[in-house]
Design goal:
about 300 residues; mainly alpha; binds fe (ii) ion
Length: about 300
């Protein structure tokens, strides 16, 4: 084993930090639409020099809404995947069963939190912002893949959340405190998920030959390609939402710049930050060095 993660310690940490949806959203806990939601390192609005300060904030908030909605989407495949992983060994290690069910319960709670957030966003923002979906169809497509490929995708997503929060969000004092609080509460539970994902990837790879492991890695890259197609669609949605919310029609040249800058920003946010995460690469390298090298050969396209 690469890192000394255990089901018992992940469960204990999770029980110690547990929070309720009602404690973090609703009542006085409202979004402040005069402030940005996302850090600039993920939103990338500054390179769009033809936008005013206010227009950049509008785009930033559109990106923030898509960010939480896309997490809601991916957690719809993580939830059944974890339950399927837990089910064959319900009579085995008690800590394993409890830690995985706790993980699934937290993802169900996050899905509900993001739906609740979307209600607040739609009420306050004033423009309907389309997001890729539907979640069931995306989950069904991802779950068609090799379980090892799905497990590596989950590992990627949960370490990616760690990186976003620690590197870009935690110390950014410009962000709306309510949006930041949602990200913080999500992050603090995802810490345990990333460790449990590591155990899951190791367990799924344990019985496999190198060729079978590399097949799982190819399926992970295929899932990445599928997500990338979704991101290209999301950029088009964000462009439409931006023009509607700002009541400004961009020129064709401006639209092209918007698409190029925002596709790069989306690829970095959802693909590059996970594919280049040192913990993800360490786990892949521990399976086989070729797995790490294969992902490292592809990741520059998303950075
Ligand atoms: Fe989550
Ligand atoms: Fe998670």
């Amino acid at each position: 084993m690469l890192d000394r993660y255990t089901y018992q310690s992940a469960l204990a940490a999770s029980e110690a930090i547990h929070w309720r949806i009602e404690d973090i959203i609703g009542g006085e806990k409202r979004l402040n639409f005069t402030l940005p939601f996302m850090p600039e390192s993920l939103a990338h609005t500054e390179p769009l020099t033809f936008l005013t300060k206010e227009e950049k904030r509008i785009l930033n908030q559109i990106r923030g809404n898509a960010y939480l909605c896309i997490f809601g989407l991916v957690e719809e495949f993580i939830l059944p995947f974890i339950l399927d992983h837990a089910r064959p060994q319900l009579r085995g290690d008690d800590y394993r069963v409890r830690a995985l069910l706790q993980f699934a319960g937290e993802e169900a709670k996050h899905i509900q939190l993001f739906k609740r957030f979307r209600q607040d966003f739609e009420e306050g923002f004033g423009t309907n912002c389309q997001v890729i979906g539907p979640p069931e169809a995306i989950a069904a497509e991802i779950l068609k893949h090799d379980p090892l490929g799905v497990a590596i995708t989950t590992l990627h997503i949960e370490w990616m959340v760690q990186r976003h929060y620690i590197d870009s969000i935690r110390d950014d004092q410009e962000l709306d405190p309510q949006f930041k609080s949602l990200l913080k509460h999500h992050w603090v539970e995802e810490v345990q998920h990333a460790k449990l994902d590591t155990l899951m990837v190791e367990a799924l790879a344990a019985e496999r030959s190198e060729a079978e492991i590399l097949r799982g890695v190819e399926e992970y890259l295929e899932i990445g390609g599928f997500i990338d197609g979704g991101l290209q669609q999301q950029v088009e949605f964000d462009l439409q939402s931006f023009e509607e919310a700002s009541r400004r029609t961009l020129t064709e040249v401006e639209r092209d710049v918007f698409r190029r800058v925002q596709l790069r920003a989306n690829r970095w946010t959802y693909l590059g930050t996970g594919m280049t995460h040192e913990k993800v690469l360490n786990t892949l390298g521990w399976l086989t060095l070729k797995a790490r090298q294969r992902v490292e050969s592809v990741s520059p396209a998303f950075c």
